[in-house]
Write a structure and sequence with these properties.
Blueprint: E1 3-9, E2 14-20, H1 26-44, E3 50-52, H2 62-68, E4 77-81, H3 86-89, H4 92-95, H5 97-104, H6 112-120, E5 129-135, H7 147-152, E6 155-157, E7 165-168
Parallel strand pairs: 2-5, 3-4
Antiparallel strand pairs: 1-2, 4-7, 6-7
Helix pairs in contact: 5-6
Length: 174
C-alpha cells in the first residue's frame, strides 16, 4: 500500500510528495508536514512564522488537531483551513496533482522505486519540479480523541469561522 501526501510551494513552483507505506492517518499527515518543513521548507523560508497546513481530509477531527497541536515539533504556527471549499481552491489541486497523475498514467506500480521515479518526473514547461520521499513509519489506524485530549487542545480557533479555520501555535509563542 502506498499513501501519497502532497505539499505544494507556489512561490518556488515546487511540489513534494511524501509516500507512506502504512495508513493515511492524521499522524502521517503531520509527520509529512514535519519532514517537509525540517528538510526543505525551513531552508527556503527560515524566517517564516507560519506554514499553511492545508486541508487534509481529517483536519476537522479532534485527533488531527491533537497531532498538530501547538506546532511545537515544527516550531512555527500551522494554519489549518478546513472549509469545504478550501480543497477546491487550493493550488495543489491544479498545479501539482494533475501533473503527478499525468506522470503516472498507464504505468504499472510494480515497485516502490518505480513509483518514486515516476512521481519525480512530474515537471511542466512552466518550471514545476517535484521531489519525493518515503516515510516508512507504521501508523496505527482507528485512533480516537479522548475527552482529555479534547479538553487539553491548545488550538486557536478563528473568530469569524471557528468551525472551519484554526491555528496550531507553538507553546513557545503563546
Amino acid at each position: 500500500m502506498i499513501i501519497p501526501h502532497g505539499i505544494y510551494d507556489p512561490v518556488r513552483n515546487r511540489g513534494h510528495i511524501n509516500l507512506g507505506l502504512s495508513r493515511d492517518t492524521s499522524q502521517f499527515a503531520c509527520d509529512s508536514l514535519l519532514w517537509y518543513w525540517n528538510r526543505i521548507g525551513q531552508q527556503c523560508y527560515g524566517d517564516a512564522d507560519s506554514i499553511d497546513g492545508g486541508g487534509s481530509n481529517s483536519a476537522h477531527k479532534y485527533i488531527f488537531k491533537h497531532d498538530a497541536d501547538g506546532g511545537d515539533q515544527i516550531g512555527v504556527e500551522i494554519v489549518l483551513p478546513t472549509t469545504p471549499t478550501a480543497r477546491k481552491y487550493n493550488p495543489i489541486e491544479r498545479r501539482l496533482f494533475p501533473h503527478i497523475g499525468r506522470a503516472c498514467t498507464g504505468l504499472l506500480f510494480d515497485t516502490l522505486e518505480t513509483v518514486v521515479e515516476l512521481m519525480r518526473k512530474a515537471t511542466t514547461s512552466t518550471g514545476l519540479k517535484t521531489t519525493v520521499n518515503v516515510i516508512r513509519h507504521i501508523y496505527e489506524a482507528g485512533r480516537n480523541a479522548t475527552d482529555e485530549i479534547k479538553r487539553n487542545l491548545k488550538i486557536v480557533y478563528d473568530d469569524l469561522l471557528p468551525k472551519w479555520n484554526y491555528r496550531a501555535i507553538p507553546q513557545s509563542r503563546q
